[in-house]
Q: What sequence folds into this?
C-alpha cells in the first residue's frame, strides 16, 4: 500500500522551549521535522521534559537550514549545517549555533515517536 503525506499537514505537533517538532506517521516510517530557534539547547529546552541528562534518541537527519553543534557524551563534537546528512547515536547534547533558526528532517523514527515527551527518551 502506498502512503503519501505532506509536511504541511503533520499528524502531531509537540512544542518545547525555543522550538517545536512536527511528526508524520506512515507505515514503516515515522518522520519528524524539528525547528529550533536561536538560543535552543537540548539540555535546557528538552532535557527537563525528557527527564534525562542527555538526548537518548538516535537520529538519522538532514539539515535544511541553520547550524547546530552536537557533543557526544564521550566528548566528541561536530557541527552540521545546510545540506548535511548525519547519524547521531543516543547520548548527546546539541545546540543552535548563531542567530538562524535550525530546521532538521529526521528519518530515524525515535524523534517522531519519543522526542520531547515527558519521562521518556529525549
A:
Amino acid at each position: 500500500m502506498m502512503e503519501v503525506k505532506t509536511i504541511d499537514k503533520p499528524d502531531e505537533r509537540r512544542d518545547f522551549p525555543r522550538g517545536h517538532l512536527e511528526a508524520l506517521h506512515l507505515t514503516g516510517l515515522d518522520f519528524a521535522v524539528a525547528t529550533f530557534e536561536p538560543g535552543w539547547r537540548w539540555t535546557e529546552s528538552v532535557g527537563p521534559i525528557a527527564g534525562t541528562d542527555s538526548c537518548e534518541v538516535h537520529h538519522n537527519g538532514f539539515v535544511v537550514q541553520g547550524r547546530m553543534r552536537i557533543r557526544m557524551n564521550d566528548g566528541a563534537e561536530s557541527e552540521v549545517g545546510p545540506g548535511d546528512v548525519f547519524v547521531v547515536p543516543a547520548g548527546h547534547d546539541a545546540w543552535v549555533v548563531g542567530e538562524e533558526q535550525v530546521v532538521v528532517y529526521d528519518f530515524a523514527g525515535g524523534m517522531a515517536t519519543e522526542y520531547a515527551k515527558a519521562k521518556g527518551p529525549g
Summary: The two ends are 31 Å apart (CA to CA).
